[in-house]
Write a structure and sequence with these properties.
- This protein has 48 residues and is mainly alpha-helical.
- The protein has a domain at 21-48.
- It has one helix and no strands.
- The protein has one helix at residues 2-45.
- The termini are far apart.
- The model has no long low-confidence stretch (mean pLDDT 92).
Length: 48
Amino acid sequence: MGQDLAQLQDGEQQLDQEKAAIANNKTQLADEFLIKARLQTITYDETD
């Protein structure tokens, strides 16, 4: 019984770490999207 509980707790910790990594990846992707969008507006604002 104690071993099962320990395995569940380990699994829960692993899931929490994965959730944190996913949240960081989402933030990074959002930042990259904003940078690309801003660069795109600069490209369209330039006159030839």
